[in-house]
Structure formats: C-alpha cells, structure tokens
Amino acid sequence: MSDYAIGEGMEITLHFTLKLEDGTVVDSTKEKAPATFQFGDGNLPPGFENPLKGMAAGESGTFEITPEHAFGQHNPQNIQTLKRDDFGDETPELGMVLSFADKAGTELPGMVKTIDGDRIEVDFNHPLAGRTLTFDVEVLDIKPATTH
C-alpha cells in the first residue's frame, strides 16, 4: 500500500466496472488484469477521473456519471445518411460498426442504423452517449508517474 492520493502526476492501478442504468455491465476489469494509467493522460474522460481525485490505495467507490461528464448527450446531427458508394468494397449491414475518416483524417467509428436501398444511415454518436453510467472503482495502487 502506498501513502499517495490520486491526483496530477500519479500513476493509478485500479479495478473498475462500468454499468448502465439497468445494471448491465458494459466494461469491467474484475475478471482480468487491473487498469493502469496516469491521472490526466486522457485514458479516462475527465468525468470519470474527477471523482477519483483524493482517493487512496485500498479505497473503493461507486460514482454515478451523467452523460455530460461521460460520453456526451446523443446528438441527432451525428447521424448521417450516406450513399452505398461511400462504403467502397464494404457491404453495410444493420448494427455493423465501421471506421470512417473525417475531413481532417481523424478516424470516426459509425454504426449502421438503417439501410434503405442506396441510402444508409450511420450513427456517429458514441454508443454510450446519452447514458448515465455507474462507475465502480477499487483503487489498488498509486505511485508517482515516471516519465519515459
């Protein structure tokens, strides 16, 4: 056990479970290796990091994360209608998640929502957008981050 508290410049090792409003587990490290990351490195959205601040090794917590602090609200403008030609060699199927590049060349995942002949509706919202999530954490270790 360390005497450090979670904050800037700290490397944190923890187990977490992320659940939907109905208790469905979306992601968890419980059955596998714990997650290790540096506080503030962008691995966790700020809304997930902020509640951890000040926690110590050996502490556990359950936090409700609202959409604004998790993956944002569902935005209807993030649903685009594309032409079948836009998919190249891919054959779009309902529920399929494909990667698209935006004008800046950034990769964006999009899920096929509807297929109507040559018109395919793709949802570019994060799959957890608009959801309030429960974030269970068990802090295993905290130490000063080492720079590589």
- What is the CATH top level name of the largest domain? Alpha Beta
Mean pLDDT: 92
What structural class results from the helix and strand content? mainly beta
Which percent band covers the strand fraction? 35-45%
CATH architecture of the largest domain: Roll
Shape: elongated
Q: What is the name of the CATH topology of the largest domain? A: Chitinase A, domain 3
Number of strands: 9
Give the helix proportion (percent range): under 10%
pLDDT < 50 runs, ≥5 residues: none
Query: Distance between the terminal alpha carbons, to the nearest Å?
Result: 24 Å
SSE order? EEEHEEEEEE
Q: Report the biggest beta sheet as strand number plus sense, adding barrel if it closes.
A: 5 strands, antiparallel
- Put simply, the count of helices is 1
Count of discrete structural domains: 2
What would you report as the Rg, rounded to the nearest angstrom?
Answer: 19 Å
Compact summary:
The protein has 148 residues and is mostly beta strands. The protein has one helix at 46-49; strands spanning 10-19, 25-28, 35-38, 60-65, 79-83, 97-101, 107-116, 119-123, 133-144. The longest helix is centred in the N-terminal third of the chain and has 4 residues, at 46-49.
